[in-house]
Amino acid sequence: MYASISDALISTLKSWSMWSPIIATIAVIFLGYLLAYKKIFKQEWEKVMIKIVMVVGLPALALKGFLNDASLESLKSEMAVLLTGFAFYAIMIFISKYFFLKKEKDIQDTLAMCIALASTTFFGIPVVTALYSDSSTSANIFNIPYRVFLYSFAFIIMSKKTMATTVKKAKSEMTEVELLEAKKIKKQTLKNIFVNPILIATFVGFIIWATQLIPGINCVPPYDGKGQNFSPLRVDKLLPPIDKILVTLQAICTPLAWLAIGMTMNKGNLKEAMKDKMLWYASVVKVVVAPTIILLMIIGVASLGHYTNSFSFKMTSMAAMVIMTAAPPANVVVAYSISYNKAPEVASNLTTLSTLLSIVTLPLWVIVATAVGSLPMFV
């Protein structure tokens, strides 16, 4: 076993296929930082770039990620990813506050949500798809529980008033204003979950992918007469131009995301953040402790599948989940902290510092994932 781990590490460290995406990631992020620092890029362009990525690039990437052939074995493997994701985020939402028990409630809530919910979509997916080309399906499935918790529990926690000013009331005791506010929060939560381009694209893609297992649905013959019949829901094969459109749109995702991340780093106060011991502690928890927790969970799940011979867990799925979890805090959590005035400066500075640490630790997590991935429970 040790020989296989050693061989895998040596092979990975000597391979440009690992170092090229990592160097490209760091270089383009630094370019975005430099262009914003030199005022060549206006800071307000960051929002436009993020909007393009979130509304166009990432939905195309999510949908395209599911447009591949499905099998019963791959379905079981991806269900393991999905259930592990739900378990991980449920645990993190609950335990993350205990890392900051001595802090006041607003700071505790903000730091806890920053730790629990990484920027898996904006930072994570472009990186893992560059590193592991066959990881897009697993990455998007892992994002399903992430988005459910991000737009529900995180929104509810971040939109709550401080404990000093909040008193739990029965519905009959609430004033009309409080009832309206409660309804508004509930409505916004549901809207955030269901009216989201990335989540819609993910669910549509998952349905297209999973329904290929329905007996008899693969009834459309290929246009060139070569290969196997396919499902009428496979729009990429039914109308080949759609495939080209998705490929083109998903291609804008990675460079724009990395440039915007660099601009975000320029916006934050890195010098101030580096002087704050609390932010260093939170950043280490974010980019080291949280990924370690999910890695241990994945090893447990993969071992269960391997030794019971019930399902397999792909090495690339494990690596994608770990690297995505090691990303800096989600932009949405930072937006919540600003909107509801919950330690917005702390959230902003934590994002800046943890983004820097995420870039530094990225090669380390790739190496760790490679070593762990050589264990017999991964395929």
Describe the structure.
One of its GO terms (cellular component) is plasma membrane. It is a single chain. This protein is globular. Helix content is 73%, strand content 0%. It has a single domain (2-373), classed as Na+/H+ antiporter like fold, CATH 1.20.1530. The chain is built from 18 helices and no strands. Helix 3 (45-66) packs antiparallel against helix 12 (240-251) and helix 16 packs antiparallel against helix 18 (344-373).
How would you concisely characterize the structure shown here?
It is found in: Cell membrane. With 379 residues, the protein is mainly alpha-helical.
Compute the number of strand runs. Answer: 0
In DSSP terms (H or I, runs of 4 or more residues), the helix count works out at: 18
Order of helices and strands: HHHHHHHHHHHHHHHHHH
> Mean pLDDT, nearest integer?
89
Largest sheet: none
Measured between the Cα atoms of the first and last residue, the distance is: 14 Å
CATH fold-level label: Na+/H+ antiporter like fold
* β-sheet strand percentage: under 5%
Low-confidence stretches: 162-168
**Oligomeric nature of the chains:** single chain
* Count of separate structural domains: 1
Structural class: mainly alpha
CATH architecture: Up-down Bundle
- Apparent shape: globular
Q: Which CATH class?
A: Mainly Alpha
The residue fraction in helices comes out at over 70%
**Global Rg:** 22 Å
